[in-house]
Amino acid sequence: MSERRDLVSHYEAAYTTTPPWDIGRPQPAFAALAADGELGRTVLDVGCGTGEHVLMAAEAGSDAVGIDITAAAIRLAEAKAHQRGIPARFIVGDALHLESFGEEFETVLDCGLFHVFEDEDRAPFVDSLGHVVRPGGRYFMLCFSDEEPPGWGPRRVTQREINDAFAHGWDVTSIEPTHLHVTIRPEPVRAWFASIERITS
């Protein structure tokens, strides 16, 4: 419990300035989903931050919801939605306990959440996702790739780690190399963009 409180404090502190992941626009990999009509009717963004992907989905016609463990991020997301006149819901909550939602979604988006979990949190996170992604629904995940050189930022993730984490009850339909844009340098980070389908209830 104290570790989760420390995590919340860490992210609350990050939003006293502009954190590296808050680029103020959708990541291109997710923008392409919206442009191609791939988001579906109901969308949940886990670890939504200040809400750019939720607002993108809502503008594309989806019933869009964002959840983040950080109240500061949710306040900023709600302010954006109000300023832009976009209907979207934002909730302070823990992505490891999505069962409390009591809802299922066609699509779940994850921009930079999976790669912050320690090994012991990955299985609980995948189990938590299983409560909100309906059978046949999809989880789209953007994370740091192991092709990104070591250094600052979160852990790098291998394709094998993604496949292993979603080996039961899911179908990893694709893992493609892409880029994840950040605020602290002009060149983007090397990343994986994974499309994963829920195949059991």
Q: How does this model look, in words?
A:
Helices cover 31% and strands 27% of the residues. With 201 residues, the protein is α/β, with parallel strands linked by helices. The protein is globular. The chain starts with a helix and ends with a strand.
Which helices and strands, and how do they pair?
Blueprint: H1 2-14, H2 28-35, E1 42-46, H3 52-59, E2 63-68, H4 71-84, E3 89-92, E4 105-111, H5 119-130, E5 133-144, H6 159-165, E6 170-180, E7 189-198
Parallel strand pairs: 1-2, 1-4, 2-3, 4-5
Antiparallel strand pairs: 5-7, 6-7
Helix content: 25-40%
Choose one word for the global shape.
Answer: globular
Distance between the termini: 29 Å
Number of strands: 7
Instruction: Indicate the low-confidence ranges by residue numbers.
Output: none
User: What kind of sheet is the major sheet?
Assistant: 7 strands, mixed
Given helix and strand content, the structural type is alpha/beta
Number of helices: 6
**Strands of the biggest beta sheet: in what spatial order?**
3-2-1-4-5-7-6
Mean pLDDT: 94
Total individual domains: 1
Q: Going by CATH, what is the homologous superfamily?
A: Vaccinia Virus protein VP39
In N-to-C order, the SSE pattern is HHEHEHEEHEHEE
CATH class: Alpha Beta
CATH topology: Rossmann fold
